[in-house]
Amino acid sequence: MSRPAPVTTGRYAPPAPVRELTATSADGAPVHVEVHGPEGAPAVVLAHGWTCSTAFWAAQIRELAADHRVIAYDQRGHGRSPASPACSTDALADDLEAVLTATLAPGERAVIAGHSMGGMTVMAASARPAFREHAAAVLLCSTGSTRLVPESTVLPLRPGRVRTWITGHILGSRAPLGPVTPAARRILKYATMGPASAPDMVEACARIVHACPRTVRHAWSHVLATLDLDAAVRELNVPVEIVAGTADRLTPPVHARALAAALPDCRGLTELPGVGHMTPVEAPDLVTSRIRDLVTAHVSAQQPPVPAEENA
Length: 312
Prior knowledge:
Domain AB hydrolase-1: 44-287
Number of helices: 14
Pfam family, one: Abhydrolase_6
Largest sheet: 8 strands, mixed
InterPro entries: AB_hydrolase, AB_hydrolase_1, AB_hydrolase_fold
Protein name: Alpha/beta hydrolase
Shape: globular
Distance between the termini: 60 Å
Order of helices and strands: EEEHEHEHHEHHHHHHEHEHHH
GO molecular function: hydrolase activity
Strand order of the largest sheet: 1-2-4-3-5-6-7-8
Oligomer: single chain
Radius of gyration: 18 Å
Number of strands: 8
Structural class: alpha/beta
């Protein structure tokens, strides 16, 4: 079965990168990387979530690439990065380290933004040498560090063993998602987006999620179901901003609040009323502005001034 392509018009259509490259992870896995924007501009690295791809960040890339060097990559098995038998938070951290090393100069600092599993990737890499060398600040969007299945509210049932068991089987299903039909859009919107999400947002997300191979979706669901990154959160010793939607059924705000309490240097938690799990798509301007603010405060402000003769 052919997989749907991303949308081709509007703000959620992925812009063409300036260049593409392949980073090689610690186990030899190839990781597809795209670079947008001018060389020498302040750097931003974007890590997408479960069942998504670089296309998920289209709105942020489109705005930021005017004056930032935006680096986006496909998590292994997603987008154009081949699937790998290694599915673990360690593998995610390996991949992020490989991307940082392949795209940033020694000592160069960047803002790293992670959505959902991308945020978990950032947490998993928090103590890694390459991450500590290159991470100036972090934006965590719609993510959590543990208890993802028990806290999920995809099913309108009381919390407890029954809801957890059923939720785990739904999220870990091997069933193909099939084509993007009106029914499929309604299901995806209910599970992952706020009730007021516009049709173009739903269409963009549906195409991205339905393009993820079901074997990849199933393999990574087990990693998420057993996730425990609480210790890694306490190692995330950079300024961190958090964005969460109050209508998020996959990672409800309880996760964002727990992260804010545990992080060594949390600079703020923004809860967006009525917004679901897909915050970079549902609230693109706010997410982009948070990234810009972090760059201004923690990357641009630390760049050495241009010598006087170069300003003449």
